[in-house]
Amino acid sequence: MRFLPLLPAILLLSAAATPAIAQDAARVTVGVTGGSLGIGPEVSYRASDHFGLRGNATFLSFSQGFDSDDLDYDGKVKLRSGGVMVDLYPFNSGFRISAGARSNGNKGRVVATPSGPVTINGTTYTPAQIGTLSGRAKTKNFAPTLTLGYGGGIRPGLAFGVDAGAMFQGTVRLHDFVASNAMIRAEDIEAERRDLQDDIDSYKVYPVLQFSLGYRF
What we know:
13 strands
């Protein structure tokens, strides 16, 4: 997992912050979280020295260009998810192991508007024949999530958290793949959709890296 190099830093932060946690009896934290899942509100409750619960909702929109064969695509992504995590603090410190699930509303749209001739499924088309080629992407609505991290007080009343791990969203599915002009064969459009699908089939695990800042009371 690409965020495993953060583990030593998380452990060090946990050990350094342990005295502050011991002195702070606050159990509820209300704040904001931001990272690869998006940005949004977060509420957590540390029920005991070894157990806690967190819930958050995150949102973010961004664009990313990419190419596939002869076509240059503009990908637009909307991150929309919310979930609950069970936090286990095995060392009675800030270090935590968290497991839970998210309601995953993440979705995307891909658009290509060629400016020159392109070959799709062995057939060459002009820009006028294709117009705009577009499709939509979505994932499963339920996504188990697993992270390692730190959460605790950094000064009286103020809490900081960081979590790194993975959201197991399954395969991203492309659908509604169409060309705005009616001069490209349906089987060629489907072939292009399958090519793109093959490119993203391996992205079944979404990386999680979230930071949080909140007020404890």
